[in-house]
Amino acid sequence: MDFTQQKAAARKLAFTRRKEAFANAGPGQSAHLSEVLAGYRGVPLAGYMPIRTEISPLAAMAEASAHGPVGVPVIQGEAMPLEFSRWEPDCALREGPFGAQVPVEDNYFDPEIVIVPLVAFDIKGGRLGYGGGFYDRTLERLRSRRATLAIGLAFDAQEADHLPLEDTDQPLDMMITDTRIIEF
C-alpha cells in the first residue's frame, strides 16, 4: 500500500469513528475548549463553522468573541492558505466552499490561536485533515510571522495509534477532546 493509499485508509477509518462519536455525543462537547480559551481572553483567535460530524467550537467561540476578535476560515482557492474573517454570534453568513458558513462581509485578520478541525489525531500532536492541506499551509504562514497556537478539537474516538504524516504537516500544540486536554 503506497503512502496515498495509507492516508485514504486512515481517513476512512477516522471518519467512521468520528461519525459514531458524533451520533453518541451529548451537550457540552467543547466545554474544555471554553476552559482553555478563558486563559487567552482578548487574544485574536480563529475557530471554524462545523460541518458534517465535526465537534462544534461555537459555544466557546461565542464566549471568546465578548473579549476579542474571533474569525472563521475562508477558502481563497485550491492550494492556498486560508484567510480568517471576523465572526460574531448571529452575524450574517453565506455558504462558502465545502458547505461551511462564512461571514457575508469579509473582514480579514491574522489570529494568534487557531482552533483546528480534524479527522484524526495522534498523541504526538499529529493531525490528519481532509487532504487539501489548507490548515498546513495556513499554520506554516502564520507561524512564519509570529508564534501561533494550534489547538486541535475532536472527539476522543478520533485518536489514532499511528498517522501517515508528511514533512509539510504542521503539528498541533494542544489537543482538546470531549473529555481531555492534551498539551504536546
TrEMBL record:
<keyword id="KW-0067">ATP-binding</keyword>
<dbReference type="InterPro" id="IPR024185">
    <property type="entry name" value="FTHF_cligase-like_sf"/>
</dbReference>
<dbReference type="InterPro" id="IPR002698">
    <property type="entry name" value="FTHF_cligase"/>
</dbReference>
<keyword id="KW-0547">Nucleotide-binding</keyword>
<dbReference type="Pfam" id="PF01812">
    <property type="entry name" value="5-FTHF_cyc-lig"/>
</dbReference>
<comment type="similarity">
    <text>Belongs to the 5-formyltetrahydrofolate cyclo-ligase family.</text>
</comment>
<dbReference type="InterPro" id="IPR037171">
    <property type="entry name" value="NagB/RpiA_transferase-like"/>
</dbReference>
<protein>
    <recommendedName>
        <fullName>5-formyltetrahydrofolate cyclo-ligase</fullName>
        <ecNumber>6.3.3.2</ecNumber>
    </recommendedName>
</protein>
<keyword id="KW-0479">Metal-binding</keyword>
<keyword id="KW-0460">Magnesium</keyword>
